[in-house]
Amino acid sequence: MYVCSCFGITEAQVKQHADGGACTPRQIASACKAGTDCGGCVRRIQALLGRGDCPRRELIEGRTAPAGAPAGAPAALGTTSEVRLSDAA
Q1: What is the DSSP letter of 22?
Q2: Model's pTM, two decimal places?
Q3: Which of 54, 52, 53, 34 is nearest to 44 (CA)?
């Protein structure tokens, strides 16, 4: 079934690009132009990609989710020390 009529991109092609590491509609567009003309297919591409986590993105950005966190949980940003305004002078 076609997802992008403007460029003749099918669901199978979108899924193939996703399997290759494309996690966002913008990355799909970079790979095959889908979503770059009329934009009518962007929501369908989003649905095909789902809202789950993207392990490749986490690897690229060097982030990992905290231990015991559910899949797709935001990565830990690190520990920050508490600073009170009265301490900063």
Answers
A1: -
A2: 0.59
A3: 34
